[in-house]
Amino acid sequence: MAGTGSGTYEGFSAQERAAMKAHALDQKKAARRGSAAEKAAEAERDVLAKIAEMQESDRVMAERVHAVVTAHAPALAPKLWYGMPAYASDGKVVCFFQSAEKFKARYATLGFSDLAKLDEGPMWAAGFALTEVTPEVEARIAELVKRAT
Fold first, then answer.
1. Number of CB atoms found within 10 A of residue 4's CB
2. Cβ pair 20, 29 in contact under 8 A
3. Which of 22, 33, 108, 118 is the most buried (most CB within 10 A)?
4. Phi-psi category of 146—alpha, beta or left, where left has phi over 0 and alpha has psi -120 to 50?
5. Residues 78, 66: contact at Cβ < 8 Å?
């Protein structure tokens, strides 16, 4: 959340408000869909459309992440989550792609929720910075999403 050095609360940033609005729209849209198969197909179309809207560098990475996740963790269903491509099990997000552009960050992020089974002792990574998706990065993503499910 946005704030000042004095510690006073100024509310949510414009990016945070936009993400919350996108999430509300995603929820409304999902509630209107018909059968489970129709919902799944529409959710994947929504994810692909969101990826297509991204700037080129983010789009290229998001396309590769989408391909790797859907190939190596077919149990995870694509869906939008706060306006970001995400992959869920039983409707609950396990991992997501956050473009650098969305929050004006230096790098894109592949993040995992607490549902991901990535535990390694008392501390483990739940988010990974992405600047490009190389074959080595694809292999690492494949391994992570397999473990996560």
1. 8
2. no
3. 108
4. alpha
5. yes
Given a contact cutoff of 8 angstroms between Cβ atoms, the answer to whether 68 and 61 are in contact is no
DSSP state of 131: S
Q: What is the 3-state secondary structure (H, E, C) of 60-124?
A: HHHHHHHHHHHHHCCCCEEEEECCEEEEEECCEEEEEEECCCCCCCCCEEEEECCCCCCCCCCCC
CB-CB contact of 148 with 110 (8 Å): no
Question: Tell me: the pLDDT tens digits for 62-111?
Answer: 999 999 999 999 999 999 999 999 999 999 999 999 999 988 999 999 99
Strand order of the sheet with strand 127-130? 77-81, 84-89, 92-98, 108-112, 127-130
Q: Which residue has the higher pLDDT, 37 or 59?
A: 59
CA quadruple 68, 120, 94, 102: dihedral sign: negative
Question: Phi, psi at residue 49, to the nearest 5°?
Answer: -65, -40
Of 56, 73, 64, 74, nearest to 145 (Cα)?
A: 73
- Whose CA is closest to 61, among 120, 7, 107, 114? 107
Phi, psi of 110 (to 5 degrees): -105, 115
